[in-house]
Design a protein that fits this description.
- With 173 residues, the protein is α+β, with helices and mostly antiparallel strands.
- The chain is built from 5 helices and 10 strands, in the order βββββαβααββαββα.
- The strands form 4 sheets. A 3-stranded antiparallel beta sheet has the order 1-2-5, with no helix packed on it. Strands 6-7-8 form a 3-stranded antiparallel beta sheet, sandwiched between helices.
- A hairpin with a 6-residue loop joins strand 1 and strand 2.
- The radius of gyration is 24 Å and the shape is elongated.
Length: 173
């Protein structure tokens, strides 16, 4: 899961697998859930009794969750990105395998989640920069050291009478 806002009180799932199939992603509040404890205190193990301990966690009740193992996902700077959990409908006697797997997958999931967030920031920045370039009324273009066009503004496209796809990558227009 990853946080949906700066208050870090709600999360959106990134990948959910249940009952032999991939479940569509969804958002939920962290309040009164075991995930909230993961965010605040780190690794959490509940071999049984989730519904007794978290009676306000309606999602866990609806899914019939009995056991829960959660760990915070952290970026390369140690900031918590959200929780990762393994849940079961039956009590667990020996949690060592579940905890070991959770730690192993959390490391990789943290790196991927951080990569995805950085990619989104990059795309947002590129969109912002393109909007700025497009607001310039005169034709503007930019090329790499080999002379290939990397992009241009709308004025340049209109002047040439070509779409951006017909410009990018070319050395001559």
């Amino acid at each position: 899961c990853e946080f949906t806002d700066d208050t870090k009180t709600a999360v959106r799932t990134v990948a959910v697998y249940s009952d032999g199939k991939i479940v569509p992603n969804f958002e939920f509040s962290l309040a009164d859930t075991p995930c909230e404890l993961v965010i605040k205190h780190g690794l959490q193990e509940f071999k049984s009794g989730i519904m007794d301990n978290f009676h306000l966690d309606h999602m866990a009740q609806q899914m019939g969750i009995e056991s829960y193992f959660g760990i915070p996902l952290k970026d390369s700077k140690g900031n918590v990105l959200g929780p990762m959990a393994i849940m079961g409908r039956k009590p667990v006697q020996d949690s060592s395998l579940a905890v070991s797997m959770l730690k192993l997958f959390a490391f990789r999931a943290s790196a991927e989640l951080e990569r995805m967030q950085n990619e989104k920031k990059l795309q947002d920045n590129l969109h912002f920069l393109q909007s700025l370039i497009d607001s310039i009324p005169n034709p503007v273009f930019y090329r790499n050291t080999e002379g290939q066009f990397l992009g241009c503004n709308v004025s340049m496209q209109q002047m040439l009478g070509k779409d951006i796809e017909d410009i990018v990558g070319k050395t001559l227009i």
